[in-house]
Amino acid sequence: MKQDPQNKGVNEHSKDKQLDEFRLDNSGKKLTTNQGVKVSEDEHSLKAGSRGPTLMEDFHFREKMTHFDHERIPERVVHARGFGAHGYFQVYESMEEYTRAKFLQDPSVKTPVFVRFSTVAGSRGSADSVRDARGFATKFYTEEGNYDLVGNNIPVFFIQDAIKFPDLVHSFKPEPHNEMPQASTAHDTFWDFAANNTESAHMIMWTMSDRAIPRSFRMMEGFGVHTFRFVNEQGKSRFVKFHWKPVLGTHSLVFDEAQKLAGKDPDFHRRDLWEAIEMGDYPEFELGVQMIDEEDEFSFDFDILDPTKLWPEEMVPVKIIGKMTLNRNQDNVFAETEQAAFHPGHVVPGIDFSNDPLLQGRLFSYTDTQLIRLGGPNFHELPINRPVCPFHNNQYDGYNRMTINTGPVAYHKNSLQNNDPSPATEEEGGYVHFQEKVEGRKVRQRSDSFKDHYSQAKMFWNSMSEVEKQHMIEAFRFEVGKVQNKDVQQQVVDMFSNVDAFLAEQIALGVGAKVPDAANESQVTLSSPALSQMNTAKSPKTRKIAILADNGFNYAEVNKVMEALKAAGITPEIVSKNLGMIKGDGGELEVKKTFLTSHSVMYDAVYVPGGKESIEALKKVPQAKEFVSEAFKHFKTIAVGGEGAELLPADAMKSLGEEGAQSKTFSKMGIVASRSEDDSSSFSENLINTIAQHRHWERVI
């Protein structure tokens, strides 16, 4: 199923219609220069004789080569590796009580959006599956102007003040003396920064968790990170934090799987997003808000403006207010994803800022960076950034100006043009900043309320399941184990002894550091169940399952199971030794991938159907056995029919036990087995339900 152009769902200010003006289809067209002159030859430059020198008068060669030489723009310093998609947003009910923002008022209006997902640390050529925070930036093309919700998949950040952002980024980027390592914080300078800037403790707990290796862009949460304001028509302000909740739930890779995917398919996440939209499996995210009344600003044991703190959902519930659907892939990655310019300062009436010092710095930095990346102040005129509503001001000229302004006036106030364009009143939709009373001496210091660096880091640890805690320990051991400086390793261990003594002890044992005294361990007992991915939604939809088969497979069994899988929204793919058709006892199926072009890490589950001839052939292929073994090691669902059980690794057979080996149908520890074709319905049902669980951590025990 292809993406559905009829389901684009945009309002009368259609972004898609606007983009139509800029789309260019070269099909059936004659080649021309950029000036429109038809070109008769595009393989040979103009020369003085067939073996003579190239002539500088060859204007076509010069234009073509000049354009090529200038095709690239500077990549983003952070979030360089990105991928985007178009869609729309609809609010569920009017939010008039809380905000005057028009796109949050009418449930019948579909507001166009463009979303850019990204990794943070790596360059544009790095892998998708690295351990890292992920960017989740959304541009709403509203009738009042563009609103950018520029967030991450982690609700907190490393630092509390924007002046430290260059230092943070310099620390996690490749070390300048040898430009290594790429897209990784597993090196000395990052952990040296962390140990000497302990406000990073909470964010590091998140990046060492499974949240930093998401299964898919479609299966990760998004957060606005900062505290913003909602302001309603009466001028009442509420502090607000934004959340994106994926309808499919929040799920992750395991680290070994993430590392292998970086080599097997470095485009794993962007490919997953592209293919899901092409197949009509449109990613959906619900927008939620946490709100705190102005008078309750100081009612918590943390500062609500501190970007290294979250608001526990159990204290401040998330109100779900609408849903975003991504239903169209981009036409050109450079023109859209690369040229998309986001900025947290792009707001609409009804949304305002708080005094979060990290947010305040971003309000300067984002515009500044677009000026160098996109060649000047007119980046808002690029098609992907252009508002769907009209814009009028006296800011003329500059690099890449596309608007042709008429008339003699380019200033305010004026009489020659009746003072147009004139400011709009608040009643006419003019943006009016919330009139917060501000007073104080000019000082370079941070509020004492920002000094607690460990309480919420401990809360995060308390909220994790035992499996998630073990994954974090292994992540710390990997990252800190890559640090060469022993003193830095010890500093990190000592730092996290302030969070949890057991965690610090386990890091120390793993990296050969001294186990610190537990005296400074945080005594926080609070936990937040919402932070554990064990409590997320679980669905089989859009999951991928590899079916390993060869000639002689049980066609009737496979056919029935594939029908059931597709009906449940699961995509099956036949994997075998060679591409082409394989024959079963009653029919044949097309092989989509081979053992050379695919791997277990690219699928959510593996199914080995019965058929003696097929299984005997697969047993002679080492990659087939490895395929199943890897799936078992990565806690994925494994299904076997009849003789297919012979491909199970010894550990899997041990997990099934004697009961499983003898039963006609059996499901245990993520392994679904069937001995009889007559049981295909219950087998399929068990398989679908087991795939929905994502992982089977009981194998750890």
From TrEMBL:
EC numbers for this chain: 1.11.1.6
Alphabetized UniProt keyword annotations: Heme, Hydrogen peroxide, Iron, Metal-binding, Oxidoreductase, Peroxidase
Biased composition (Basic and acidic residues): 1-28
Organism field: Cytobacillus oceanisediminis
Catalytic activity: 2 H2O2 = O2 + 2 H2O
Covalent crosslink: 3'-histidyl-3-tyrosine (His-Tyr): H343-Y366
Sequence segments annotated as region (Disordered): 1-52
The keyword Chaperone belongs to this UniProt entry's keyword annotation: no
List of catalytic residues: H79, N152
An annotated GO BP: response to oxidative stress
Protein family per UniProt: Belongs to the catalase family. HPII subfamily.
Molecular function in Gene Ontology: catalase activity; heme binding; metal ion binding
A Gene Ontology term for the protein's cellular component: cytosol
Pfam families to which the protein is assigned, alphabetical: Catalase, Catalase-rel, Catalase_C
Cofactor: heme
UniProt cross-references to InterPro entries, sorted A to Z: Catalase, Catalase_AS, Catalase_clade2, Catalase_clade2_helical, Catalase_core, Catalase_haem_BS, Catalase_immune_responsive, Catalase_large_C
Stretches assigned to the Catalase core domain: 32-420
Entry binding sites for heme: R76, R116, F165, R362, Y366, R373
Name of the protein described by the UniProt record: Catalase
Function, in words: Decomposes hydrogen peroxide into water and oxygen; serves to protect cells from the toxic effects of hydrogen peroxide.
